[in-house]
Amino acid sequence: MEGYNIAEIKGIKIGGGVQIIPLIDIQGTMLDRMESRDDTGVADAVDIMLSQAVYHGSSDVHLEPWSDYLSLRYRLDGILQQIAVIPSEFQPKIIARIKVLSDLVVYRKDVPQDGRIDREKCSCGRPMRVSTIPTIHGEKIVVRILGAAKDLYHLDMLGFPERIADSIRALVTRPQGTLLLTGPSSSGKTTTIYAALHEMMQMQHNTINVVSIEDPVEYAMDRISQIQVNHHVEFTFAKALRSILRQDPEVIVVGEIRDLETAKMAIQAGLTGHLVISTIHSGTAAGVFTRLIDMDIEPFLIASVLLATFAQRLVRTICPYCKEKYQPPKVALAAVGLDNVDNGSFMRGRGCNQCMNTGYKGRTGIFEVLVNDEMVQRLILEKRSAQEIAREAKNAGKLRTLQEDAAAKVLRGITTLEEAAGAVMM
Length: 426
Fold this sequence. Notes:
By secondary structure, the protein is of the alpha/beta class. It has helices spanning 6-9, 26-34, 39-55, 91-101, 162-171, 189-203, 237-244, 260-271, 285-294, 299-305, 330-334, 374-381, 386-395, 402-411, 417-424; strands spanning 13-14, 18-19, 60-65, 69-76, 79-87, 113-117, 128-135, 138-145, 147-148, 177-182, 210-214, 219-220, 225-228, 251-254, 275-279, 306-318, 323-326, 346-349, 360-371.
């Protein structure tokens, strides 16, 4: 996954004639607009704030009121970066402007609210999800920048080893069964699902009926019927899934399995001629099986319907502009299982203006995939623990763990020991 690059984008005109502003200049540009003291100036400042977040590759925009100023931070490559410090006198107008754009009640400042900014309301042309919550210093706002079809990746671009990417391509063309992904929040699960769908649609020449149920719809994708759940009217994952089974789907994407009812329906759909792809909270690929058993799904159903389980994390990649060799201490090597490597060529980023002196630029995934073959099915039916399933699969050469994938990317100079260790210890 590509990151942002200030030096390369500085001064370049893109979409609609909007100029990309270097991150260090966003604060001054916004203040210049707001000092006009009229509504147009505030509207321009908010548009700059949101559009520049998109153009610099931010996933979220945080507006946080503190005692003496309003803080603007972007989440870049998974890390919050301070972008601007805005005088408190502008706070009410900026908050009000965002609430107007997202169709929220402006005068209600004492309750949390959720809204959406449609793509045509911002010069960047991207939809956004807005969440507000009252704090002691005023309302805090977090804006999640949603995706578009042009942002979809191929599996090879996400960091999957070629062998695993080919295995996934084979799995998503199966006529029925269930595929489950697991990982912490913001670990790229949705991106992986849509990469798989994108390739599936290309391989099958758009001849299949694909329906997704999401909360929210993060990527707008053509030729897929995308449904957004609405908890305000009790339109949940389970209710949506029950309804779309009458819509003759061949592939069903369920954003998340959160409860027993949704789990049972997803399993049943996988047994009755549908390919179901979803996510579930667990820790590892093997842990998905025991998680379903803990949810009271019968082991024989799990063994029958699950095609494979995936676990993933995201790690930052080393900035190519300041990459340098170094020799890490033994204790750091041990954290990712590389303490027996004596002559490895280890890399890190020194820090430069290309990467805001972080040493990192962009992110990639680390993965483990466990295919549900006869051996794994036997272990499931015996109700073996996640650790036992993982150990048996690893000893049989059928599982490359998160730690092993992270170590391989460290040795290839893609990421650092610190990033790899932090990811596998989650």
